[in-house]
Request: fold
Amino acid sequence: MMIRILYAVIALWFSAGLVSAVDLYVGQSGAVTSNCQTEATPCKTVSYAVSQVPLSSGVGYIIHIIEPGNYAGEINIVQYRVINIVGDCSNWDAVVLQPTQNSSAIVIVQDFAIGVVSCVRLDSAGHTGNGALFSRQMAILDFFAVDFGDMPGGFHYSADHAALSCTGPYRISGSAEVHATGGNSSVVHANCAVDIPAPLAFTVFGQAGFQSLTLFSGATYSGAGAGSATSGMQCIVQDGSITVPRDGSGNVLLPGNAPCAAHGFGSIW
Reply:
């Protein structure tokens, strides 16, 4: 029910007059005093560029990260903003988004906002308990062409009372406690082609919590880390539902060397 309401509200908002996108630019050579509106005068950080986007404007913004390098700073997209963050689509690892502290999310989209992240790498930069992408409280977050690096004690992507989707291929090059998780009436679409170049370690790869739905059934996994080469539980469900990819014999094809488990009213399809 919550997700149906979310999409209905956002559909009404778009029908009320969302106009074409505005371009903003971020680069290592930029400044936090710039208005970010030209490639010659970029902002220095993505979070500063986000702060230049007005609330509830009905205008979409594209933040282009035009110079390679590490960009530290939590990115918070809130309150009816529509923001697309784009790195280097010819080299996903050229632009790296990182946190500045433990137990924070690198990109968080919340409070009826819409965010898209593409063509970047996300890693913890040595911090612990972090999340790469987090959608919460009636928000939508989409991603593609992302490389998920190490997130020790944390997660790669998660939703809470929100929607989160991969919309194209992505890569997992680092371990985490959980790869993808949904909780509290969320929907997580994980039905994409995923490259895992080397064996990794997770406590659990996929997870669904209370009244949430996590969809893996259309996902495919390739690379040396696919299948049981990666360690950890394939999935766990507590009072929610997960759909999983299977082979012709019914075997679950999620990465991991321990089987899925369901608890409470959880179900695995």
